[in-house]
Design brief:
Elements (H helix, E strand, L loop, with lengths): L10 E4 L2 E4 L4 H9 L4 E4 L12 H7 L3 E4 L9 H14 L4 E4 L4 H13 L5 H11 L4 H15 L2
Parallel strand pairs: 2-5, 3-4, 3-5
Antiparallel strand pairs: 1-2
Length: 152
């Protein structure tokens, strides 16, 4: 039987929060069996890696599905704020957040930890850097979000 830990780039961030790359159908079942009740997908629905019927599969298991597609090539600051608001509303739930390879998600979670929870950049990025080293596009995006939130 599949387990969430088998999903590509799986990372448990806290008891009620895990992130990873795109799960397959068996792994979606394992997510529910592991006690997660909300899945947030930051990947694109029309991408080759996407699971076309992910929402219906999850809903058939009784899980809530939220889709917030984020372009990997051109992440937008407004998307982070939409993610922040969504995650704030679900932070007490058992959330599993994924994208294609846990790159988008790891950046968003590092940003959330910095701007919402007040973590230092080094602490917030520790889990991120276990997944990948953000490229210049994502570094610039992250810097922009941090700068905008520092001025609020």
């Amino acid at each position: 039987m599949a387990s969430p830990e088998q999903i590509y780039n799986f990372k448990r961030l806290q008891d009620n929060l895990a992130t990873a790359g795109q799960p397959d159908e068996a792994e979606l079942h394992a997510i529910g069996a592991a006690g997660f009740d909300v899945v947030i997908n930051l990947g694109l629905a029309d991408a080759p890696y996407a699971l076309a019927n992910e929402q219906s599969i999850l809903e058939s298991y009784g899980l809530r599905y939220e889709h917030l597609p984020i372009s990997f090539e051109t992440p937008e600051v407004d998307c982070f704020f939409a993610f922040r608001d969504l995650y704030r509303s679900l932070a007490e739930r058992n959330c599993f957040i994924h994208c294609a390879a846990n790159k988008r998600v790891s950046c968003f979670m590092a940003l959330y930890r910095m701007v919402e929870l007040g973590w230092s950049r080094a602490d917030a990025e520790a889990d991120l850097l276990e997944i990948w080293e953000p490229d210049p596009t994502w570094r610039a995006f992250m810097d922009q979000v941090v700068l905008l939130t520092a001025n609020r």
